[in-house]
Write a structure and sequence with these properties.
- Helix content is about 70%, strand content about 0%.
- It has one domain (about 10-165): Arp2/3 complex 21 kDa subunit ARPC3, CATH 1.10.1760.
- With about 170 residues, it is mainly α.
- The protein has helices at about 10-30, 45-55, 60-75, 80-95, 95-100, 105-130, 135-150, 150-160; strands at about 30-35, 35.
- The chain has a two-stranded antiparallel sheet with strand order 1-2.
């Protein structure tokens, strides 16, 4: 059983935001192993998922916006694309937060997969509308799988802080 931690914004918002930025930069380094490039998962999804499950907050959407804009700048995409997709996922999670309360780890992983699919599908559709071309589904599928594998990081963040503020239980 983990010890309950306080909801200091720098601990439950700031530290994960910095970790997302660092992980994105590290996986963005063009290293090839056996001719394969490292996957480009959406490192922001575990934080987005955990922040919505832990508690409603005014600061969390700002953090989601910052992560999304950073991803747009770093990957050279359309400005606001990932910010919009991540905020959409965050909003869906806030809407379904009461259904996720008290669920098992497996059910939370399923929810995480569904919301990740929605975020990536919306990104796919927005890119399709912006570029007037269909992106390849294979890289999108690999990105989805590599992002779904990151769920244990979201669960760890939830486990550390979910009991810290009893007002939102």
């Amino acid at each position: 059983m983990s010890a309950v931690r306080s909801l200091d914004p720098t601990r439950w918002l700031g530290v994960p935001l910095i970790q997302v930025v660092v992980a994105t930069i590290l996986f963005g380094i063009p290293i090839r192993l056996w001719g394969l490039q490292l996957p480009e998962p959406l490192f922001a999804m575990p934080a987005v998922f955990a922040w919505a499950v832990i508690r409603p907050s005014v600061l969390a959407p700002i953090g989601v916006l910052i992560m999304g804009l950073f991803m747009d700048l770093f990957w050279g995409g359309s400005m606001g694309l990932w910010a919009l997709c991540l905020l959409l996922a965050y909003g869906i999670l806030l809407g379904g937060r009461s259904m996720m309360a008290g669920q098992s780890r497996t059910m939370l992983w399923i929810w995480y997969g569904i919301v990740t699919a929605i975020a990536q599908l919306s990104g796919y559709l927005f890119i399709m509308l912006d570029n007037r071309a269909t992106p390849s589904l294979v890289p999108v599928g690999w990105q989805f799988l590599s992002t779904v594998v990151l769920f244990p990081f979201a669960y760890r963040l939830i486990d550390m802080f979910e009991d810290a503020d009893v007002r939102f239980r």
